[in-house]
Q: What sequence folds into this?
């Protein structure tokens, strides 16, 4: 059983930055894809960024050029660097690991507001 724990959310002003972390209790090598998703109030959960085991990345159009997904295999942690944040980025952000079965973290709230 693998647990994913997100951290790093909070309140930030428009134009600001945050770095989210997703720490896995086991090796992230067990996942062939790691991803970040978000869900705003009243909206469906949507994919933000994904990274494959070989390091390939893909981003939602709405965050391209502003967000960066990365991983530290030694720390079994995946990150989401978020720059130039906008109010529409406000959501609960979730980490997901795709493997023999899929795992979700509990989510971390990101609020972008002045």
A:
């Amino acid at each position: 059983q693998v647990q994913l724990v997100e951290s790093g959310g909070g309140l930030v002003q428009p134009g600001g930055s945050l770095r989210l972390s997703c720490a896995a209790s086991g090796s992230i090598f067990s996942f062939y894809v790691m991803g970040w998703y978000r869900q705003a109030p009243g909206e469906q959960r949507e994919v933000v960024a994904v990274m494959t085991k070989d390091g390939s990345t893909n981003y939602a159009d709405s965050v391209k050029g502003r967000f960066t997904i990365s991983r530290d295999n030694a720390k079994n942690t995946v990150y989401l660097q978020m720059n130039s944040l906008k109010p529409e980025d406000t959501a609960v952000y979730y980490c997901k690991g795709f493997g023999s079965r899929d795992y979700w973290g509990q989510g971390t709230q990101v609020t972008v507001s002045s």
User: Anything to note?
Assistant: The two ends are 40 Å apart (CA to CA).
